[in-house]
Specification:
The chain is mainly beta. The chain has one helix and seven strands; from the N terminus they run βββββββα.
């Protein structure tokens, strides 16, 4: 029997306001130092590791249903974001990533000015 490492994905919730997208990921037991958040204009990625604490004399009575080991997820975003202003915080096992939307006025204005030429 091989001991393969399984990559797991956290439960997610993505919400939208007029000015930003807010992604929440459930990561109980994962420390902030074990996480990497990578933002691109149309995608957000989360990677990290949930370390299992070693208990030398503990016997497992009920098989663990917790997720341990590497975690990874990639979320395509419904609108472009400003990657330079993305904020992330981890509170009580919930990672909240706040992503301001790119302002569309500048690109719309540029398109309108080139259309008049």
């Amino acid at each position: 029997m091989t001991n393969s490492i399984k990559i797991w994905s956290p439960a997610l919730e993505l919400n939208e306001t007029d000015t930003e997208l807010i992604l929440k990921a459930e990561l109980p037991g994962v420390e902030l130092k074990e996480l990497q958040v990578h933002a691109e204009v149309e995608t957000i990625s989360i990677a990290g590791v949930h370390q299992k604490e070693q208990q030398p004399k503990a016997r497992e009575i009920i098989p663990s249903q917790l997720h341990y080991g590497p975690l990874q997820c990639h979320v395509p975003l419904p609108v472009p974001i400003n990657v330079e202003q993305v904020r992330a915080e981890l509170v009580d096992g919930v990672l909240t990533i706040t992503m301001p939307k790119l302002e569309q006025a500048s690109s719309t204005k540029a398109m309108a000015s080139t259309a008049n030429k």
